[in-house]
Amino acid sequence: MAWIAERRRQSRFEAVVLPHLDAGYALARWLTRNDADAADVVQEACLRAFRYFDSYRDGDAKSWLLKIVRRTCYDWLEHNRPAEVVPLEVDGDPEGAVHGSPVGTVDADALLQSRSDLRRLDGLIEELPAQLREAIVLRELHELDYRQISDVTGVPIGTVMSRLHRARAALRRAWDGKGVG
Questions:
Q1: End of a domain among 48, 68, 84?
Q2: What is the pLDDT of residues 111-169, one digit of tens each?
Q3: Total domains in the fold of the chain
Q4: CA–CA distance, 136 with 7 (Å, rounded to integer)
Q5: Tell me, what's the pLDDT at 141?
Q6: With contact defined as beta carbons under 8 Å apart, do 76 and 40 qualify?
Q7: Is residue 59 part of a domain?
Q8: Which of 6, 30, 39, 139 is the 20 to 30 Å CA partner of 95?
Q9: 98 lies in a domain?
């Protein structure tokens, strides 16, 4: 009978976690900046999630998994690339968050320029410090709200807002040719 209970647990785990693996991989990819490392991190995160699945309480599964992936990423980075894990000072300035809007056009030249701009933006995001990079990726690519980002990262909502503001400001400066930092 124990195997039946374990099979149910495994099926439930798959139903909860598998739909969010792409989001977990995307976050790991942005944080590690490497496809193979991201795959390793997500595999370790899934093992951790399965090990502690009994503590999952039918909440926001995506945030739950991303929180585990994030922690696993930082553990991996601390072990493999400690210079990249730099704590950020918290400034209490959540003002100034600006949301850009995508450019829509059917003009081939404009489409090519848009793709070029996206590649450039990806490169600029990769240059951000890890905490700013994760905040912008969780908000803009995974479309998590501030509360979900706060839950995933384990920091107060004000810190999330501050990091997003700083990330956007750094991206604007870099886009204008003034550097990310």
A1: 84
A2: 556 667 777 888 888 889 989 999 999 998 888 899 999 999 999 999 999 999 999 99
A3: 2
A4: 38
A5: 83
A6: yes
A7: yes
A8: 30
A9: no
